[in-house]
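ok so for the tutorial part 2 we go from a plain amino acid sequence to predicted structure tokens. step 1 is just haveing the sequence, like this:
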Amino acid sequence: MAFYVGNSQDIVSENITERIGQMRLLPLDTAQVNQMRRLGFSLMEKDKNLSRRLLEEALDKSLKVKEPESIIDCYRLLGIWYANYGDNGRAMLHYQLSYKVAEKNKKLNLMAGVLYNMGNVQYWRSRYDSCIYYYQQAQRLYETPGFIKNAGITQNQYDRRTSELYQNIATVFGTLSNFRKAHEYMDKAIAIAQKYDSRAARENLAFFQQEKAGLYDDSGETEKALRLRLSYLPGIESAQFDRPLENAYVNIATEYLELKKTDSAVFYADKHAALAQKLNEPEYTASADFLQAKIAYQNKNYRKAEIYIEKAKSYYENVEDLFGKNKFYGLIKDIAFANGHYRDAFLYAQKYDETKDSLQTGKQAIEFMEREMRYETEKKETQIKLQEAEIKQKKLFNYIFTGCTLGLILILVLLYRNHRHRQKIQKAKIEELELGKQLAATEAILKGEEQERSRLAKDLHDGLGGMLSGIKLQLGAMKGNLILTEENGALFNNALNKLDQSISEMRRVAHNMMPEALIQLGLEQALQDYCSSISASGTFTVNTEFYGLGQRLSAATEVTVYRIIQELVNNAVKHSSAKSILVQVLRRDQWLSITVEDNGRGFDVAHWQEKPTAGLQNIESRVHYLGGNMDIKSAPGKGTSVYIECKSEHNG
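step 2 — the prediction. this is what the tokens look like for a chain of 652 residues:
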């Protein structure tokens, strides 16, 4: 949440006491009042007591001068002072006094600003319904026809204020889990930010986009949030917006972790740690250590998790953010317990419960829960009294019957589990043998297929290509020795052009069957050349990300990975109607991961699983050859994401 400050600005003075004395010698008029309130506001973070005395003195003088704008601003600045130092009751009182004077004098700009400030205070007090009311009253004023002219501000200033207001409204609706309204207002903020191309506007846009992705994550749509963040990430990285980039890295890593894609989570967590080290601010450093601890804990590396969480401890134990503190205590208690530090785990669990209790959403929720508990208690007491006599009569019978039933069930369950276990062992052995045969057959087919492709490509290039080039040279030589009519000369030239096109097409086909760059320069360069050729058409934009491919894989693996990505990109080009395609290949330690995403029309994955296409079946066979798994996420109108992950023992 941000304060609406208006035209107040900092005034730096080497000798504050002398400056105040000089102000008091000035005639009592608007100029004296304005100087005093501006000085009081500028001292708010430096000397809170002197700041308040100056603002109160400026208010007294403005009431004597009777200049409306000065009175409005003095009340409002005092409201900001009290809100800044935690006295929300007095803050609301001064905001209300400021609003009354602004309303009486029809100062729409100042009325909207005060309503915005009042909404902030109600948000901090967890009074979200009241917060929404004040924000939407401010929105109503901002959207009044002629507001910009009445307020005397520029279109740029107007757009900045309204976009921040819409973002705040979206945050409150998100807190209340009304995600439809939250997205509605966040889209408004994004639309305004997209109107401007300045660095500040683009950085603001990046912040709004991350907030929108956060709404998807809060509503349980983690995969959608992740796709959105990844689509915005290249722009944020190229612009080097450090703080939105920090936010993006930590959330992408966290969301990959939630989806159990540890390799990708570690990749972005490392990027976040490097950026946090560059920014060198306690908040970001602690966030990086917390994220590393969380990943280590999920990977059951409890000692490593303990090292990182201890690094973050001093920051989180002293931070005022209860939500962050609660997350910290929740993780550190689990890590302490996993490492056998049970006494520490118990103490951290107590602190976790204390911070959790402090996060209750206000008096209204507490009263509602109390009423519900009283009702449920009375209801249970009545039921107990009615059933007590019947329970006493049937107690012995129930014990005997229950014991016999449980014994019989236990015996049946054990017999059934034993039978199922034997079946599973037998089935697993059969499946293992069948899988071995299938992999051997697939390997033979793929190797034969690639050898045949290589042979055909060589025959086309060296044999047919050489013959066609020889024919072209002979025809060119004949042209100089023949006397042709103009019409026959044109036909002869056209034949030569067709021959050139045939040679080019033959070379293209030979290159697709076995790219020279793949053999000579390796997988990364071959994929880059292929994706660049797709982008060169101008119809599609293919973005690429490669990491860890400096050391070459085995020839068979490189060809297989190339064919997988070639087939996936061809599918996107032919069927998706997409404008943008992302190709990502990451190799880290023992893992190789492939991601191909597009923003096209998507398809029904359930329908594909029932009736798989030949192309996707071909991709699946190559993935199984690599000993990997493939995960396809898609829906009509929402693009397609294919994620493939395999171990290094299968990729050379």
